[in-house]
């Protein structure tokens, strides 16, 4: 086609495509930061992510759960776990909910390392913190909405998010600045306070979880 006959911007990708591209670029930059940290600590990024996922999980996790969270094979997850055990950062023990199963736990050294891993992404946190508070709230809302849509495809892993917690009560205070409610602390909950990963999280039943996520569907 003659470039002179083209309409301005007609080749611009859809907004949705540009959103996905932007998230991918951000993920690449963050992955690079994780690589730098992991390499300096004699880890690889998968091992570092495993330590992060185990942080605060006092009841331990199963190998299959780790593999699902990281979208890797059970064999790859097993290799990384073995390496972390040999480094003294993880240990295996009987699962508290099933004495026949094995769960993975952080050692004290592993917990210390997991706490330090967050510093690898300080640059990204600072970039987000530099945005006006109103834009941060809008961005967080948009991300929750995107996650809600992704969960419909069954491709998004389990999260310890407020919206999948049994204590979350959606729209209990309609019309208020904090429309939702946390039953654990018995207090109103605004969107900017919603957590992606809460240590006090207790999974809601499937019906309640689906209802909660409809807040952003």
Description:
This protein has 217 residues and is mainly alpha-helical. The chain folds into 2 domains: 15-130, Orthogonal Bundle (Arc Repressor Mutant, subunit A); 133-216, no CATH class. Helix content is 47%, strand content 11%. The chain contains 8 helices and 5 strands. The strands form 2 sheets. A 3-stranded antiparallel sheet has the order 3-4-5, with no helix packed on it. Strands 1-2 form a two-stranded antiparallel ribbon. A hairpin with a 4-residue loop joins strand 4 (180-182) and strand 5 (187-189). The longest helix is centred in the N-terminal third of the chain and has 26 residues, at 15-40. It is globular, with a radius of gyration of 20 Å. The protein starts with 14 loop residues before the first helix and ends with a helix. The model has no long low-confidence stretch (mean pLDDT 88).
Proportion of residues in extended strands: 5-15%
Oligomeric state, counting identical vs distinct chains = single chain
- Indicate the CATH architecture of the largest domain: Orthogonal Bundle
CATH level-4 homologous superfamily of the largest domain: Winged helix-like DNA-binding domain superfamily/Winged helix DNA-binding domain
- Main beta sheet, described? 3 strands, antiparallel
Helix content class: 40-55%
In total, how many beta strands? 5
